[in-house]
Design a protein that fits this description.
Helix content is 43%, strand content 17%. It has 386 residues and is of the alpha/beta class. Helix 3 (88-105) links the parallel strand 4 (78-84) and strand 5. The two termini are 25 Å apart. The chain binds 5'-O-[(R)-(carboxyoxy)(hydroxy)phosphoryl]adenosine and zinc ion (ZN).
C-alpha cells in the first residue's frame, strides 16, 4: 500500500487542531489550540465565540503542524477535515480553509465524520505500537461532551462501516460531567476536574437511582433512521439528565448553595487552579458528592457497554472520546473487561479528547479508496456515522 502523508484539520467544537499522520499508522505532528480560556467565564462553549476563535487560530495551527512534521503545504498527499457532527459555524471554518488549501495546492480533499475520527484514534495508536491484528467484532463506545454512542465497527477491504446500537436519550456523559461541575462551582470543562477530585471523596456516600429507560426511542435513532417495530436487534441506550437533576436536588436539600457560590468566586480569581486550590475550596460533602457522581456515571457506562459486548459477542472493545480520558473509567473498563475476557483499548489521554490526528488517521482508508469530497460539500452539524 502506498504511503500517504495526510494533513488533518479539526474545528467541530472548542479546539482548533491540525496534524500530519503517515498512512493512518504514524503520528508525525499534532497541534491542538484549546479555547477553554475563552469559554470558561460562560461555563460552556459559546458557538459564536468558538467560530471567531477558530478563525484566529486555524492558519497558525496548520502552519505549526506542518512545521513540526517538517512538511510543507506541497509535500502532503491529501487534506482531511471534519465535516460533522459539531457546531455548524465552527465546522465551517475548518472546511472552508481545507477547501482553499486543497484547491490552491491541487490536493485531494477528504471529509471525515468526527465520531469516526475518535474511533480511529485508537486504531492509529495501536498500529503505531505495532499491533496490526484486530479481532472482530469490534464494539466502540464514543463518549464525549456531545456523544455517548455505541457502534459495531466492521471493515470490508479498506472501507469501514458502523452500526449504531446505543446512544444517549438526553445528555451526553461528558455534558453531565460538565453540568455537575458547573452547578458545584467547579468551572469548565468539568470532566478533568471531577476526575482529579473524585479520589478525595467517598464514592459510596450518595446513592443515585439507576437511569430508567422505559420507552422505545420515538425520536429516531442516532444514525437518523427511525426504529422499526420489527427492529429487534438489542439496543443499549443511555440517559444522563436524571443524575444531573439528582445532584442539583442534593445540593438544594443539603443547603450547599452558599458554599457553591463562594467556591465559584474563589476559583474564578485563580487563573489556572491546581488540585490543591480545588481541594482547599471543597468541603467533605462536596468531595463525597463528586466521587459518588463519578462512580454512578462509570458504573452505568461500563455496565451497559459490557452488556452490549456480551449481547453482540464482541471480541474487541474500544473506548474513546473526551470522557475516555477519565482515569477511574479506564481502570474500571480494564478490570471489568478482563473478567469477561474482553480486551479494551483506549487512545492515549491526549488523543482521547478532540484532535486532528484522529481525523487524518480516519481519512487514510478513504484516501486508498479515492473517496474524495467534492468542492461543494458543506458542514453537517447532525451528521450520522454509518
Ligand atoms: O471529545 P471531546 O474533547 O469533545 C467532544 O467531542 O465533545 O470531549 C470533551 C468532553 C467534555 O465534556 C469534558 O468534560 C470531557 O470530555 N472530559 C472528561 C475528562 N476529560 C475530558 N470527562 C471525564 N474525565 C476526564 N478526565
Ligand atoms: Zn470529540
Amino acid at each position: 500500500m502506498p504511503d500517504a502523508y495526510i494533513l488533518g484539520i479539526e474545528s467541530s467544537c472548542d479546539e482548533t487542531a491540525a496534524a500530519v499522520v503517515r498512512s493512518g499508522e504514524q503520528l508525525i505532528s499534532n497541534v491542538v489550540a484549546s479555547q477553554i480560556a475563552t469559554h470558561q467565564p460562560y461555563g460552556g462553549v459559546v458557538p459564536e465565540l468558538a467560530s471567531r476563535e477558530h478563525l484566529r487560530a486555524i492558519v497558525p495551527v496548520v502552519r505549526q503542524a506542518l512545521a513540526d512534521a517538517k512538511h510543507t503545504y506541497d509535500s502532503v498527499d491529501a487534506i482531511a477535515v471534519t465535516q460533522g457532527p459539531g457546531l455548524a459555524g465552527a465546522l465551517l471554518v475548518g472546511i472552508v480553509y481545507a477547501k482553499a488549501l486543497a484547491f490552491a495546492l491541487g490536493k485531494p480533499l477528504i471529509a471525515v465524520n468526527h465520531l469516526e475520527g475518535h474511533i480511529h484514534a485508537v486504531l492509529l495508536e495501536e498500529r503505531q505500537k505495532g499491533n496490526h491484528e484486530l479481532q472482530f467484532p469490534v464494539l466502540a463506545l464514543v463518549v464525549s461532551g456531545g456523544h455517548t454512542h455505541l457502534y459495531l465497527a466492521s471493515q470490508n477491504g479498506d472501507a469501514w462501516s458502523y452500526e449504531n446500537i446505543g446512544h444517549t436519550r438526553d445528555d451526553a456523559a461528558g455534558e453531565a460531567f460538565d453540568k455537575v461541575a458547573k452547578l458545584l462551582g467547579l468551572g469548565y470543562p468539568g470532566g478533568p476536574v471531577i476526575d482529579r477530585l473524585a479520589p478525595h471523596g467517598d464514592p459510596h456516600s450518595v446513592k443515585f437511582p439507576p437511569a430508567q429507560i422505559k420507552h422505545r426511542d420515538r425520536r429516531g435513532r442516532a444514525d437518523g433512521r427511525t426504529v422499526k417495530p420489527d427492529d429487534d436487534r438489542p439496543r443499549f441506550d443511555f440517559s444522563y439528565s436524571g443524575i444531573k437533576t439528582a445532584v442539583l436536588r442534593y445540593v438544594e436539600s443539603h443547603q450547599m448553595q452558599a458554599a457553591v457560590e463562594a467556591r465559584r468566586k474563589a476559583l474564578a480569581n485563580i487563573s489556572k487552579p491546581k488540585l490543591d486550590d480545588y481541594l482547599l475550596h471543597c468541603d467533605k460533602l462536596t468531595l463525597d458528592l463528586v466521587a459518588s457522581f463519578q462512580r454512578a456515571m462509570i458504573e452505568d457506562l461500563v455496565g451497559k457497554t459490557l452488556a452490549a459486548a456480551e449481547a453482540y459477542d464482541i471480541a474487541t472493545l474500544f473506548v474513546t472520546g473526551g470522557v475516555a480520558a477519565n482515569q477511574e473509567l479506564r481502570r474500571t473498563f480494564e478490570r471489568e473487561g478482563a473478567k469477561q475476557g474482553l480486551p479494551v483499548f483506549f487512545p492515549s489521554r491526549p488523543l482521547s479528547t478532540d484532535n486532528a490526528a484522529m481525523i487524518a488517521a480516519a481519512a487514510y482508508p478513504k484516501f486508498l479508496a479515492r473517496d474524495f469530497a467534492p468542492m461543494d460539500f458543506s458542514a453537517e452539524a447532525g451528521m450520522a456515522l454509518k
